[in-house]
From TrEMBL:
InterPro entries hit by this protein: Lysozyme-like_dom_sf (IPR023346), Transglycosylase_SLT_dom_1 (IPR008258)
Segments traversing the membrane: none
Family to which the UniProt record says this protein belongs: Belongs to the transglycosylase Slt family.
Name by which UniProt lists this protein: Transglycosylase-like protein with SLT domain
Domain Transglycosylase SLT: 78-171
Keywords assigned by UniProt, alphabetized: Signal
Domain of life the protein comes from: Bacteria
Record-linked Gene3D superfamilies: 1.10.530.10
SUPFAM superfamilies, A to Z: Lysozyme-like (SSF53955)
Pfam families: SLT (PF01464)
């Protein structure tokens, strides 16, 4: 019995040590957390290298209203196509103004056709007849939306519409082509 009592006494200091040790570990953890929340967080926020890339979108860009003179039959068709595909209406109207000047029979020197100037291969992929003004506008709005979904930026979607999505990916933004930069500036407003 005495041996058991002695054993019990020996276990008590070990138990006390474990309790102290747990308290010490909790205190250490708390102090380390304070460092992470304080000094380390400050160092992280001051580090340019560790920060995620910032995408700066000009505030005035994309908010320009359509100011073209065209008021013909395809204006409402273009508005409807833009709404159907979740494209800002005025942005799409400015795109059509820039692409074709609202000339349904326009054909570019590169072979783009119609109001939204769809390339024949693009029109085929979209399943639209590029020579039918209504289908052309429908295809143009859908294609612009696809570019937005891909790049998550209307500015980059416009660049992809003009220069192709591969060029936007290759250059990591608006390609350094004068035509494309001018195109984006005229339609987006920056």
């Amino acid at each position: 019995m005495a041996a058991l009592a002695l054993l019990g006494m020996a276990a008590s200091p070990a138990m006390a040590e474990t309790t102290v040790s747990s308290k010490a570990r909790a205190a250490l953890f708390k102090s380390q957390t304070r460092v992470l929340d304080g000094r380390a967080a400050q160092q992280y926020s001051n580090s340019v290298r560790l920060q995620p890339q910032r995408v700066i979108t000009p505030s005035r860009g994309g908010s320009l209203a359509y100011t073209g003179k065209y008021r013909g039959e395809f204006l409402d068709v273009a508005r409807t196509a833009a709404r159907r595909h979740g494209v800002p209406e005025d942005l799409f109207l400015r795109l059509v103004q820039q692409e074709s000047g609202w000339n349904a029979g326009a054909v570019s020197h590169k072979g783009a056709i119609g109001l939204a100037q769809l390339m024949p291969e693009t029109a085929r992929h979209l399943g639209v007849n590029p020579r039918d003004p209504r289908e052309n506008l429908e295809g143009g709005a859908r294609y612009l939306r696809r570019q937005f979904d891909r790049f998550r930026s209307w500015r980059l979607a416009l660049a992809a519409y003009n220069a192709g999505p591969e060029a936007v990916e290759r250059h990591g933004g608006v390609p350094p082509y004068d035509e494309t930069r001018s195109y984006v500036r005229k339609i987006w407003g920056s």
